[in-house]
Automatic annotation (TrEMBL):
Record's keyword terms, sorted: Amino-acid biosynthesis, Cytoplasm, One-carbon metabolism, Pyridoxal phosphate, Transferase
Protein name, per record: Serine hydroxymethyltransferase
Source organism: Nocardiopsis lambiniae
Annotated PROSITE patterns: SHMT
N6-(pyridoxal phosphate)lysine, modified sites: 226
Family recorded in the similarity comment: Belongs to the SHMT family.
Encoding gene (name): glyA
Length: 415
């Protein structure tokens, strides 16, 4: 019964160093967040010891009476939060949630229509070397050159031409809202299923700041660790008539034993997400992203070739376009890292640079909003980023400004 630091000082030291890194830097990777301490606690419980193949009330193992309570809480909270008829809380990740949906509703060789990876889609939406692109026949729609928004006319035309069995709406790097009614209409026009992957914006949906895809889609998938702010994991919401198919695709189709410790943490996160404090955090998230977009479209940014894809944002992230900048995505990511800001480089639509380099940055506000940042703080962050992307910049003073912000909002003070 030794503690982690006694039993394994090497792992323990690296965990401590990671906590220090999270505390001392500005985390702006759009898909990341800081899970509440209660979520960390739930995930670190004895539930990790329990096998529970099956579903609450129908398990293939004995001794499931307590994990049944927990999993049912997670299911009920997910259904309530998003207004869904059925929820499966077992997918180990977002990618596995998506793959389980394909496994449930499609056959190998069936056609899917999803947003191009290079235009902001996710690799599970039909990337060639992902399961979705290897086993299914993936066709991609795109964003428009003029304004960087999804080209619904192209979606409709491709749907008519390729007759996909399923249309996928959702994204990993897209700064605008999707028109779910339009997607539904296009899907209905060819008798296709509509899946919405709301992994990125689920937290905004929960807070009522983004249209809810549940009334429009046959299936909605999400991760639980992005804007939703919970443990790493996946979640599937469906209409009651698809419940059985989805459940058996997750288990026994794709997975064995569910991670009940993670499911407990999902239940806690879903409880948090139904509260007013969470809604306030999502409002600061969206407002912070808007401020960031505004300040990165000022004339001094334009002068050094910094632009914002689609001209702004409606969500929790900004896609910075560096096509005309001397800095490529890799250099810009490294530059921000050197002053204590963590972001990821990201291809922009029609990116002239190779995928490992890119001409863009994806910058998100969820983690900092969770930390407590408000408009004034996000304005300061935006100014620091704008300064850092200029050819001449004073690294020491920018580092000091970053430090002042991290000190203003202590992270995990009780850990
Ligand atoms: N779907 C979308 C839209 C995503 O952005 C991501 C993660 O980046 C995923 C699914 C996959 O989630 P995970 O990393 O948990 O497999």
């Amino acid at each position: 019964n030794k503690s982690l630091s006694e039993l394994d000082p090497e792992v323990s030291a690296a965990v401590d160093a990671e906590l220090a890194r999270q505390r001392d830097t500005l985390e702006m990777i759009a898909s990341e967040n800081f899970a509440p301490q209660a979520v960390l606690e739930a995930q670190g419980t004895v539930l990790t010891n329990k096998y529970a193949e099956g579903y609450p009330g129908r398990r293939y193992y004995g001794g499931c009476e307590h994990v049944d309570v927990i999993e049912q809480l997670a299911i009920d909270r997910a259904k309530d939060l998003f207004g869904a008829e059925h929820a499966n809380v077992q997918p180990h990740s977002g990618a596995q949630a998506n793959t389980a949906v394909y496994f449930a509703l499609l056959k190998p060789g069936d056609t899917i229509l999803g947003l191009d990876l290079a235009h902001g889609g996710h690799l599970t939406h039909g990337m060639r070397i992902n399961y979705s692109g290897k086993v299914l026949n993936a066709v991609a729609y795109h964003v428009r050159d003029e304004d960087g928004t999804v080209d619904y006319d192209e979606v409709a035309a491709l749907a008519k031409e390729h007759q996909p069995k399923m249309i996928i709406a959702g994204w990993s790097a897209y700064p605008r809202r999707l028109d779910f009614a339009r997607f539904r209409e296009i899907a209905d026009s060819i008798g296709a299923l509509l899946m919405v992957d709301m992994a990125h914006f689920a937290g905004l949906v929960a807070a009522g700041l983004h249209p809810n895809p549940v009334p429009f889609a046959d299936v909605v998938t999400t991760t639980t660790h992005k804007t939703l702010g919970g443990p790493r994991g996946g979640l599937i919401l469906t209409k009651a008539e698809l419940a059985k198919k989805i459940n058996s695709a997750v288990f026994p189709g794709m997975q064995g034993g569910p991670l009940e410790h993670v499911i407990a943490a999902k239940a806690v996160a879903l409880k948090v997400a139904a509260g007013e404090e969470f809604a306030d955090r999502q409002r600061r998230t969206v407002s912070g992203a808007r401020l960031l977009a505004e300040r990165l479209t000022r004339p001094d940014a334009a002068e050094v070739g910094v632009k914002v894809a689609s001209g702004g944002t409606d969500v929790h992230l900004v896609l910075v376009d560096l096509v005309n900048s001397e800095l490529n995505g890799q250099e810009a990511e490294d530059r921000l890292h050197s002053i204590g800001i963590t972001v990821n480089r990201n291809a922009v639509p029609n990116d002239p640079r190779p995928p490992m380099v890119t001409s863009g940055l994806r910058i998100g506000t969820p983690a900092l909003a969770t930390r407590g940042f408000g408009d004034e703080d996000f304005a300061e962050v935006a100014d620091v980023i704008a300064e850092a992307l200029k050819p001449e910049f004073d690294a020491a003073s920018l580092r000091a400004r970053v430090r002042a912000l991290t000190e203003k909002y202590p992270l995990y003070p009780n850990l």
